[in-house]
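Explain the record.
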Amino acid sequence: MGIDQLINKAINAAILAGQKIMVVYASNDFEIVEKDDFSPLTKADHEAHLEIIKSLESTQIPVLSEEGIHLDFSERSLWKTFWLVDPLDGTKEFISRNGEFTVNIALIRENQPIAGVIYIPVSGELYVGIVGDGAWKMLNPELNSTFKQISENGTKLPITKSSAEYIVAASRSHLNAETLAFIDNMKRDHPELEISKKGSSLKMCMVAEGTASIYPKLGTTMEWDTAAGHAILKASGKNIFNTDLMSELTYNKENLQNPHFIAV
């Protein structure tokens, strides 16, 4: 399969997973449990994971999902191409019912994201990008929508903004002192900057579409948190850098935790 055919599978997988999530979201029982790292896990995380695995099975490409089995690096290191998935990014936002959670699916090749899909189940917004081909946003895409259809009928990213405002995207639930200090330091060059707090990968979507100028993250994230957004950012002409603002984040490391980064 070509990249466009593969990303078509991911688009469909994200929408189907979003439907599973919304069934749980509308219920009164999220079946919340605590994982080993003390982060919450719900029935929606699990059902979205299973749906994505099933939807991507025909690609015959290995899947590394937050909610799946994490193979030892000795096995993962042999993967040249793989799917990197967060079935429900923003579980805390899901539990608090603020709508700021996403389905993230990225295609990784040679440790770099080459395509990605982010779907927001509550709003029905879908972001998709293929590096080299561009990135688009579409509202309420139908099942079996293709990248070609979305690129023809969606909104190309970034969206041109006439505003001169400097907007900093920041985490709603995980904004730490180090990131706040970094933002405060930016006020020297941008005294009128505004902070926009969002959950999940929505912050990377904001930078990709141009509604935020920068997203600094000086805290803990995992590879599945950033991969899909990274692909969409690159496809839109933006990127995610290490704090040196020169080298990019890489994927399928032995330790799946990301270093601190800046999306711009």
Q: What stands out?
A: The chain has eight helices and 14 strands.
